Predict the structure.
Amino acid sequence: MKARVTVTLKPSILDPQGKAIEGALKSLGVGGIASVRQGKIFEIEVEGGDKAKAEAALKQAADKLLANTVIENYRVEIE
Amino acid sequence: MKSAVVLFPGSNRERDAVRALRLVCGSEPKVVWHGDSELPSGTDLVVLPGGFSYGDYLRCGAIAARSPVMDAVRKHADAGGLVLGICNGFQILCESGLLPGVLMRNAQMRFQCRVVGLRVENSDTPFTRGYNAGQVIHIPVAHGEGNYEADAETLTRLEGDGRIAYRYCGPNGELEPKYNINGAIASIAGIVSEKHNVLGLMPHPENHVEEQMGSTDGRGLFAGMLEHVSRAA
């Protein structure tokens, strides 16, 4: 099974990388960009076909390592 | 004083730490591999040196914080042993939960590599007793992610319990935004744990311990730890 964990900074957290990208897009003349927040995507191949089990494992992975839940939110999606 | 310096893949300041400990504390530190699950017996101080453990992949310090040696470091800290995390070591301490808060990208979006002013906030910790409270020292920094952030409740607790050890400041101890080189909340450069036995610090005191380095301002930090351990013995 293919799964995806998306990690993003919580909305209240300053994102200097996103700000730098936002500034670069503006200087490149790309119109209509209001703001940019950047994050990370983990594409994970899960063994077996049990969706509930996979979801539990992915949540554990995110809580233990993939995200720092002090500053980041995450979302788990299984195809 | 028996000290151990932990070597992670990507650490690059471990030799500076070893040299400073040898020079100021007068004994040879042991270098411990991150895959080891025990510290040398009788270790008084563990140093997590600066560098780029695991290439800063995922988040600075995140992978190192979950390595086998960190369980031993946690046990050592719980038993009241000294732990000093410098730069990447500070990031590892925050990622491992031994210190609260996180180190974010520098707010100014620039890697900072220079000598900064630091104000000693509380001289009543093993890591600051070598100085006077309010004293300004000059120490080098080299980091891209040293912007310390914590929620309001944590910050109040740190302030109230005297756990802010060092702040970025001007030549006379001024806490102005222009001296806060990475945008850290309350200009925080270093904090200690609840029991005051764990210090996380972004600047590199190990790089100002000899005249040839341009300053010996960092010696006080090592001398203070030595005094603390000698008195406890």
In short: The CA atoms of residues 2 and 169 of chain B lie 33 Å apart.
